[in-house]
Amino acid sequence: MKAFAGAPLSDAAEWDAYVAAHDGATPFHSRAWCEAIARATGHRCHLVTARDAGGVLTGLLPLHHIRSPLFGQALVGSGFAVGGGILADDPAVAAALAEGASNMARALGVPSVELRGGPLPEGEGWAREQGVYAGFARDLAGDDDAELLAIPRKQRAEVRKALGSELTVTTGRDTAERRDHYRIYATSVRNLGTPVFPKSLFDAVLDAFGEAADILTVRDGVRPVASVLSLYWRGTVMPYWGGGLAEARRLRANELMYFALMRHARTRGCTRFDFGRSKLGTGPFAYKKNWGFEPQPLVYARWLAPGQRARDTNPGSARYRLQVDLWKRLPLWAANRIGPLIARGLG
Predict the structure, then answer these.
(1) Which of 116, 99, 106, 102 is nearest to 3 (CA)?
(2) pTM for the whole structure
(3) How far apart (Å, rounded) are the C-alpha atoms in residues 296 and 294?
(4) pLDDT in tens, 77-120
(5) Cα pseudo-dihedral 329, 276, 87, 79, rounded to 10
(6) Owning domain of residue 62
(7) Are residues 56 and 109 in the same domain?
(8) Alpha carbon of residue 249 to chain centroid
(9) pLDDT for 263 beyond 90
(10) DSSP, res 139
(11) Is residue 134 over pLDDT 60?
């Protein structure tokens, strides 16, 4: 079994068909995601594939070549994703893809390969990384009343107050929804001390996924105060990029946003809610537990060339503490102009 590197577009039809047929596929394995990331950020996507003796595709691994003067280089499967990794018919194919990924890194002079899901490779240069992130997902209830009962008592009371407020909710994918979402998201991450992704990234993902992605926004009168961009994949809703303004907590806008998204997802035929990943010990980690979601430890894999160190892209790292504190004080216009130049290198 051998793995091959090829240009993604040359394998487009096979790529789509393989992902569609594989039970373990995520949106981050899809051509839609990989091409959207490449188009929005300029990071090239390399596709590592495996085939049997008859030439039939038996596995694939999309890798974005992330380059940053601040954070260094890595092949990431997949870029800007919380999942992805190796997608294969069996362990032998998975091992071949892992070898193909490390060989590609050597050929490109890239010191690291980062996999955020799928089978975890073993062998020279590969190591597992755990104890950092947990994922949160559970089934949706059948209706609003049952959904409320699935939420622990204290958080349920907050949701009920939000439902009784005068806040309103809109959903869509048009220019106005995109503008409001980006403004809110950019403000939210600036307040956390994190550089914002380029707006082109959100537009590219929305355009690539079509009706399988949308935006839900909570409004106080006409003013948008909280917003989330979600993906829909095989009956699961995935709130992916979300945030709120400073007053969102006082207004309980985030409580309304996520409960309204559960309701909206049910109307779309979804049966599962994937709250995404959070770092252990953080506010978002505790918030998701308050909603009744049980954390599931996530284990990632990384290959390092001999003598190389893993890149550090964690904004909570001690080495970035001063930068984070300074970033929180930047005017929003400055953060929005400078942030995308930095954030596209995080991958």
Answers:
(1) 99
(2) 0.93
(3) 6
(4) 999 999 999 999 999 999 999 999 999 999 999 999 999 999 99
(5) -10
(6) 2-130+299-311
(7) yes
(8) 23
(9) yes
(10) E
(11) yes
